[in-house]
């Protein structure tokens, strides 16, 4: 967030928010079934969502 002033009466505020900036995957648990052919294999991810960036500008006068 950054505030700017222009004269006495005009103010502007710029705001930016970023979620999951690095877009890093969060891997699920490995298969724990002992006799399975995929024992110990991680085959899923538990990501919350993709990278998300939002910005806003507010002007008060």
Please tell me about this protein's structure:
There is one protein chain. The chain has 61 residues and is mostly beta strands. The chain has a domain at 1-23 and 45-61. The chain is 0% helix and 39% strand. The chain has no helices and three strands. The protein has strands at 2-6, 10-19, 52-60. A three-stranded antiparallel beta sheet has the order 1-2-3, with no helix packed on it. A hairpin with a 3-residue loop joins strand 1 (2-6) and strand 2 (10-19). The model has no long low-confidence stretch (mean pLDDT 91).
- Low-pLDDT regions: none
Question: What is the end-to-end distance?
Answer: 19 Å
Rg for CA atoms: 23 Å
Number of helices: 0
Q: What general outline do the C-alpha atoms trace?
A: rod-shaped
- Measured as a percent range, the helix fraction is under 10%
Question: Order of helices and strands, N to C?
Answer: EEE
Structural class: mainly beta
Proportion of residues in β-strands? 35-45%
Give me the side-by-side strand order of the main sheet. 1-2-3
Q: Specify the biggest β-sheet.
A: 3 strands, antiparallel
């Amino acid at each position: 967030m950054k505030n700017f002033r222009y004269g006495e009466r005009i103010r502007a505020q710029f705001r930016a928010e970023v979620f999951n900036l690095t877009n890093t995957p969060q891997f699920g648990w490995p298969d724990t079934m002992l006799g399975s052919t995929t024992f110990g294999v991680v085959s899923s991810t538990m990501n919350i969502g993709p990278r998300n960036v939002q910005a806003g500008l507010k002007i008060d006068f």
